[in-house]
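Now for our specimen.

. . .
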Amino acid sequence: MPAGLGRGQLSVNGYSEGWLRRGFPWVYRDELTGGEQALAAGSTVSLRAPDGRSLGSGIWSPAGKVAVRVWRTDDGPIDAALIRARLDAARRRRALPPQTDAWRWVHGENDDMPGVRVDVWGDQLAIALEDPSLAVLLPALVQGLVELGAPTAIWRADRPTDEPSTSVEARGLLWGEAPETEVVVSELGLRFAVRPGASHDVGLFCDMREARAWLAPHLAGRRVLNLFAHTGAFSVQAAAHGAAEVLTVDLSATWLQRARQNMVLNGLDPSSTRFMEEDALAALDLLRRKGARFDLIIADPPSFSHGPRGEWSVTRDLGRLVASCCRVLDPGGWLMVASNHGGLSPKDFGSMIQSGALKAETPLRLLHEAGTPLDFPAALSFPESRYLKCWVLGR
């Protein structure tokens, strides 16, 4: 168990028992029926059913909706040996594509390590914890990663959460040396500059790798519009695979500058492509009024964002975005729409796309559904892991 912390015991209700016996890795706070008093954050706790039988053990969190993240189905310790074994198992189940050294080593609950993410960026690693209580695991995590991965540096780069009580965006160098703040990594032979220690957003979303790989043979000669472009991974890919035209749109001048940098890293002339610093919906309206048309539009918006034109919410605005895209999509063109918002169900995602197409009076046909790559597995016992929706639609 984590050094310096005692071990507690918690009882759960019958509803929680049912889910735990099916392998679900969380216990919600309102499912507890006793025992939580005087437990320190990060304590290992044994879980008990209403009849007293063991339901496993996990890490206690005193704040947030999730009270316990379940690491074991028995009462054994959550120690360095267990963590090393889980890290080793996660590494062994990965099958990476060639010319790729940016990937996810640990995908939390889906690799039997609830609340922990480990990403590989070349020879550097980044650990993200979903709750401050999990910081007790850091010494064993670092030890195991050093032994199994031989990195030059390990960073902590937690993601902010929607719960103020658990949102501690901690980051910094945990181990090793990193004289350069930027690392150049490869994905399917293309090069991208990332910053593992800067924040939780290093500059490349590896869970979209499969979508990029699927698009690659279809890009030659196309006029491509990349909305919400971030650091331009799709734009780089389009230019590298022979697109006739690439327009990269993002509201952030910083992201667009990094997109230009990624073009240069791949031997591409940034002046041969266009960049637009603008809100995506405003850009689409401007392009429509100018009569612009595209053969491929890529729209991978954030779940939520704030800009000078107001607040964006994918659950409210996705249909409007699709309608605006349809108005600049050539007959026979393709529209790729993606969302990683876990609160948006696949059914609602499809309904919003259809409503947008109907509003624009543009029939769309589903051509392909891209999933997450092999380093983003989804445990069947954890439905929340199937978060990514990515459709390629044809007009």
About this structure: The radius of gyration is 23 Å. The chain has a mean pLDDT of 93.
